[in-house]
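call fold target=FAD/NAD(P)-binding protein
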Amino acid sequence: MKALAIIGFGPRGLYALERLVYHLVMRKQKINILVFESKELGTGAAWNTNQPDSNLINITERALVDLPSRPKTIYRNIEIPQFPSYHQWCEFSQNELEPDTFPQRRKVGKYLSERANSIIDVLKSKSDFKLIITSIKTIDIKDNKLILSSENRTWKVDDVLLTIGHQSTKNSEQLTEWIKYSKSNAKIKAYENTYPVSQFESIKNQTNISIGIRGFGLSMLDVMRYLTINDFGNFKITDNHTFEAQYYKVNKQQLELIPFSLDGLPLVPKPLNEHIDKWYEPTDEELKYFKTSITSVAQTSEDVNTIDFLLKTIAEISARVFLDLHDNAVNHNCDKNVIKTVVLNWLHNQDYQHSTLQNNNTNTYNLIKNYIEMALGEAKITLDYCVGQVWRHCQPTLYDAFSYANLKPEIIEDMIAQDERCKRYSYGPPIESMQQLLALVDAGILNLDFVNNPDIELEDNSWRLTNKSQNNKGVSIMINSVLDSPKLLEVNSPLVTNLLQHDLISPIHSKLGIETDENAYVKTDNKKNKVNIAVLGRLAKGSVIGVDAILECFGSRIDNWGKAYSEKVSES
């Protein structure tokens, strides 16, 4: 009987097992299944249930309507119970005028954990299923079998599915220097990663301390909240409609947080509610046009040299949406062709300036206020805000059409880079998070003076930050909140480096992840053996697009793998 190993049992591993069982039942097949996981089942690191409530998801609870239920299945004479969709599970109910909710990560993690345990508890009674609590360190091939090794055991299987999520990568030269520096000086401290935020417990309630935060994105917000909801103060909402907040201090604390990034541009909050969000929705016809236009190129044209075929369709939809905003948009007298040209110019260069676009030279505090008011529907909408929301609505279609694209790796890299640039808008946080940020500035705790790419020098007992106005500030603690992109050749986890050394995986591009086919199986240059390894998730970035979204963990690509694997078993 064939044996399959699923390595990693976070959200993708969970859904892969569910879809695998479904397709095995459909074909009346039997296999041995081994699931390997060393931590909490179903959640992965991002959704573990032990993290604090201050870690928020940046997806509206409303959008989790696409996190599907699991139907009841009879597998090998045992019943795998039905499990509700996320909305059924949390009894979600909301009218379109109510503010969108953004749940804690641990709440979504609780759903995933319960779902995972509900299938594992049933399957582990079968002799042909094993849950093995360990980390796989190496994979090798011998006699066309895959040999999996932990620190003290080995297993032999026919196929492997890797769903191992985010892997550690080599630190940048700057971060490497900082860590080395901090290890040689007991008076300072550098943190390589943001998570778990509980690692900052020892500095959470210190006084007279200045902390630098490398990065100005979603992870920075989690660090900010964790450090400031403390024994000295907390947030209080002063306006339930706008989520305007005040940071009130119950005890005196001299805490200063100093975030910074390469461009200093802030995150852009999502619209307040479904009603406002609908202003930016493409029509069904536009989404169909969008998918047809980019699929016809992405899946058939190897000779494309730019991503303009994608950007032009986005510009077409965005121009229509912007013009339909009428009085809700900034004042202008531009026709559709002019708007399309502005959108294209801005997508190519977000420093491009036009009267319809938000001026990024505005100071950071006012820039955030402007975007909050747009998100509330209380200020005139700029074209960049509009395009960012349209991009978000187009992302699921974009990810589907671009995955396994028949394009040059360089074009795929450009498309991913464009999506990353737009994430400041499309992956934006709730309004409440940005109001909290402003409240901390008002309270004198968050310092935005160094947010835009400061010079950083190492001193005896601090990092010295100097901004473009030549103001400077020393910090004794540095936290890295930048999540590295999944460049396969930069990953330094033992399993991935082992697979590279044995020619069992290879990157689609030097700056991207593992090259896989449309059924998630790796493409390699290994001439000696057929490599029966499939990869789903972040490590396959480039072959697939949109790997960081929770809803993609429950998408069609996982089902495609399950179906393809069951067909392969039938043929063997």
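return ok
The first helix runs from residue 11 to 27. The chain has 16 helices and 19 strands.
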